[in-house]
Amino acid sequence: MDNTAASWITPPSRPELIENLVSGVDRYNPNNVGILEDYLYHQIRNEEYDCLANLAILKLYQFNPELYNPDVVINILIKALTASPLPDFNLCVSLLDERPVNAQLDEPDPLPTHLPILRGLNDLLFRCRFPAFWDIYRSDDLESLRDNYTVEVAGFDNAVRGVVVRAVKAAFTRISTARLGSYLALSGDDLAEYIAKLGWTIEPATSVVRVPPNPENQIEATVVQESIKLPQLAKVISHSVSKA
């Protein structure tokens, strides 16, 4: 198991109490939903992320529709957005197929309005259409999402930029500052400072950013050899003759 998979299963920031809940049968105990919801808001305030703990909340909502809290669901989906290209968002949505019909809500459910929006944003991130993501996310149409939800998510913009950085590192060895800036929604000194924090360098003469080599952006020649044994070759020749 690589470090990425291990940290996904057991994030280093996960408290022991949550580890015990997520790893044992207690994750199905509806009395623990408040603990898991509090942990979600801890993640939101402290720029942490624990997909398995958040999935446990959604599973409890499935089993116990009366516990359903749409604001919690929306916040879980927002956190999952920034895990792209991992399938976290779709994993969360898969637990929403059966809508809670017994939930007692004091106000209209905001999830039906926000779910298609979040699906669209996730699709843009997954397809690496980063400028389109920023344009739509910052549009007037999504003012409600920003004012009521993402404004509370500490470091949301930088978490999205983390998605961009992972994609750029995998695809480029060199990229223009203008293009990278459009991907990150940064320009000028803010862009230069962000690039410096990444440890990347800008060529002054060309304004091209050099992306350090890593296993994903290095092109390596691959030699493919096929071995056909004599009996197999004889069968091929015999089949060809019989067809002639």
Automatic annotation (TrEMBL):
Pfam entry (one): CSN8_PSD8_EIF3K
Assembly information from the UniProt record: Component of the eukaryotic translation initiation factor 3 (eIF-3) complex.
Domain PCI per the UniProt entry, residue ranges: 49-227
Protein name as catalogued: Eukaryotic translation initiation factor 3 subunit K
InterPro entries from the UniProt entry: ARM-type_fold (IPR016024), CSN8_PSD8_EIF3K (IPR033464), eIF3k (IPR009374), PCI_dom (IPR000717), Transl_init_fac_sub12_N_euk (IPR016020), WH-like_DNA-bd_sf (IPR036388), WH_DNA-bd_sf (IPR036390)
Similarity annotation: Belongs to the eIF-3 subunit K family.
Function: Component of the eukaryotic translation initiation factor 3 (eIF-3) complex, which is involved in protein synthesis of a specialized repertoire of mRNAs and, together with other initiation factors, stimulates binding of mRNA and methionyl-tRNAi to the 40S ribosome. The eIF-3 complex specifically targets and initiates translation of a subset of mRNAs involved in cell proliferation.
Subcellular location: Cytoplasm
UniProt keyword annotations, A-Z: Cytoplasm, Initiation factor, Protein biosynthesis
A GO molecular-function descriptor: RNA binding
Domain of life: Eukaryota
Iron-sulfur among keywords: no
GO cellular component, one term: eukaryotic 48S preinitiation complex
Listed transmembrane segments: none
A GO biological process held by the record: regulation of translational initiation
Statement: the UniProt record of this protein carries the keyword Cell membrane: no
